[in-house]
Amino acid sequence: MRLWIGLSLPRLPLEVFSPSWCTDAGSVVLEQERVLAMSGMARAAGVQPGMRRGGVLMLMPEAQVHERSPQREAEALFAVAMAMLQYTPQVAEAEEGTLLMDVGASLRLFGGVLALCRRVRANVRALGFTVSLGCAPTARGAWLLARAGGRARGQRTVKMPSLVRRLDLLDLLLAPPARSFAAWFEGIGCASFGELRRLPRPGLQRRCGRALLDLVDAAYGLSPELHEWIAAPEAFGARLELFDRIDDAELLLAGARRLLLQLTGWLCARQLAVERIVLKLEHERGRVARPPTCVEVALAEPAWRDEHLVRLLKERLAKLVLEAPVIGLGLEAQQLQPMAPLNESLFPEPGGTEEDRMRMLELLVSRLGAENVLQALPMADYRPEQANMWVPVQQKLSDRARNAQMPPDVMSLPRPTWLLAKPIALLMRDHRPFYGSPLRMASNAERIEAGWWNGPQTRDYFIAEGQDHALYWVYRERIGADDMEPRWYLHGLFG
User: CATH code at 252?
Assistant: First the structure.
């Protein structure tokens, strides 16, 4: 199924200076000293398109006036294209701040046309831009529907007959080649594409040239379309200049998410996953310049979805105290790995996938700190308190470390369910150890004698039973020359 999504950014000249998620500060964009775009606050103050700078400042002295920046617009459009690469590798740039996406092969993966359009719209809004979408079986048709915006009665169509009916109703001046002939078309009463198609083709070509007819043929599926796809660069690096000095780390999340969306698209396009990202917080330059503050996020398993990365980064930023205001953000991807294929098991595990468990651990590490989320590492040692050690859960363990060469007979020996962190000295009553009640030895002695190199230990371990039939793991230290009677300790409890 052939289907295209057109993305039009109608407020791009304004939103490169004042993103949609920023507070309206009365921004105005000029082109050749005349107003090209203005924010809602400026419009409410009386600013109109075509007005000169002096008139703007007279109506709104506090207005933030900017000269149009084609370079910023190109960078912003490329950032949106990078984010869209997570949905399809076939993304092309078109005229007047628009993008075209061939999504025919992606519909099933993302749940159909409506679900995909919702995701695309949400991503573009998260990037800070107002977007108008159009869906059609042809790229130029999707472009026209997206450019029409609210003027089109329907901006999504998947069948060619429906597209023809909708295109026939669109304003002819949406086509750039038709605008230079606007007066002539008005004079002959031709205002829509449907009326244009009823005009004699040879005469129309002599009057308006070939470009207009080529655009119409492409939109109606009468001629092939060629596109130059946007390619993801070899290495990822993204930067965002903030529009104000930020003193609160949590306020940086909106800008950081914009960079993470670009990273997600780049990872999907390159079929990679990332194990570590670094968000650089740039501070003011000059005599009081400070080096960037680096916020690292390490992942237990490689990831490529922005939702998970945003959650982890949000936890890190919530605990960060800024030493200086932030004026810019930069994002780097480190420790890249090939993207693992999706595991679509016929019988999924009821407790969730391994990926879900690793994401939960990563979230705990972000909230509690790496030093507070630990995993057990077995050690080849007979001494119970030395048989394992605790290491950070995100520490990479080799197979040799995970499968320590334990003594061959240690697995057959009885071990308690709960090993106490520190043995408890037991009282002696009638020459028997006492713990709530006199303890009766229910097993033969197991001697553990080890550690001559770092604290020698010689103990005789027993399974002891109390009067309530609870089982305990106790040991008796070897009697030394100066000891009159043995010392007993409780070291564990059986389930």
Answer: 3.30.1490.100
| Angle in degrees, CA 13, 129, 230, rounded to 5 | 85
Q: Residue 343: what pLDDT?
A: 55
Number of helices (H) and strands (E), helices first, in the chain? 16, 21
324 contacts: CB under 8 Å, gap ≥ 6: 283, 284, 288, 290
Contact, 252 vs 268, CB < 8 A? no
**Residue 321 lies inside a defined structural domain of this protein:** yes
Show the CA angle centred on residue 260, arms to residues 234 and 39, nearest 5°.
115
Q: How far apart are CA 260 and CA 489, in angstroms?
A: 55
Tens of pLDDT, residue by residue over 207-232, are 999 999 999 999 999 999 899 999 99
CB 446 within 8 A of CB 458: no
User: Amino acid letter at 400?
Assistant: R
Last residue of a domain, one of 167, 185, 219: 219
**pLDDT tens for each residue of 105-158:** 999 989 999 999 999 999 999 999 999 999 999 999 999 999 998 655 558 899
CA 95 to chain centre: 29
Buried b / exposed e across 243-264, counting CB within 10 Å, b at 16+? beebeebeebebbbbbbbbbbb
Confidence of residue 302 (pLDDT cuts 50, 70, 90): confident
Classified as helix, coil or strand, 23 is coil
Instruction: State the Cα–Cα distance between residues 293 and 282, nearest whole angstrom.
Output: 7
CB 450 within 8 A of CB 382: yes
Instruction: Return the SS3 of 195.
Output: helix
**How much is the pLDDT for 320?**
86
Q: What is the CATH number of the domain that holds 115?
A: 3.30.70.270
Is residue 451's pLDDT more than 80?
A: no
Contacts of 486 (CB under 8 A, 6+ apart): 476, 477, 479
Q: How far is CA 204 from CA 183, 186, 190, in A?
A: 15, 14, 12
pLDDT at 406 over 70: no
Residue 447 in any domain: the answer is: yes
Count the domains in the chain: 3
* Mode of pairing for the β-strands spanning 446-450 and 440-441: unpaired
Give the range of the structural domain holding residue 484, as residue numbers without chain letter: 414-493
Helix (H) or strand (E) holding 33: none
Task: Check if the beta carbon of residue 475 is closer than 8 Å to that of residue 460.
Answer: yes
Identify the domain boundary among 342, 367, 394: 342
**Choice between 129 and 390, residue whose per-residue pLDDT is larger:** 129
Give the whole-angstrom CA distance, residue 449 versus residue 478: 10
